[in-house]
Amino acid sequence: MTEQNSTQETQESGFSIQRIYVKDVSFETPNSPKIFTQEWDPDVNIELNTSSQLVAENVYEVSLRLTVTTKSGDQVAYICEVTQAGIFTILGLNGQQLQHCLAAFCPNILFPYVRETISSLVNKGSFQPINLDPVNFDALFANYLQQQAEQEQVADSSEILQ
Length: 162
Known about the structure:
4-stranded antiparallel sheet, translocation, cytoplasm, 4 strands, Bacterial Protein-export protein SecB, transport, Protein-export protein SecB, 38% strand, alpha+beta, unfolded protein binding
């Protein structure tokens, strides 16, 4: 009987990668060629966003968008924006487990791909290499949950006062 239960659980839960692809890419050097003649003093700003959508039953597209804006002095040297996406089949997860998978686990899989694409584009733009630090998507998701709980607590408090 235990073997049947184990087999049934295996059939009911699962994770697989269907496809990983570049969904959108942009590289701009708005102040070239002048930026190449100035002293290089880079100031790097990184923006990171994730999103997901249901594509079919148990099939999700997860997108990870990274925007790297680098200035030298007060001039924008380059803006590199890459949206890396993946299609994932996720079985047997619900609620917060599914949210965690879509907001942390899948972006962890996508991040090395987006990091390599950005590094390659910056190199092709003839700028100094950029090495993006790893991102702890689990910590970002935990922070998101904490913020949601705090917002709900504030909303509950304001309802009580009214």
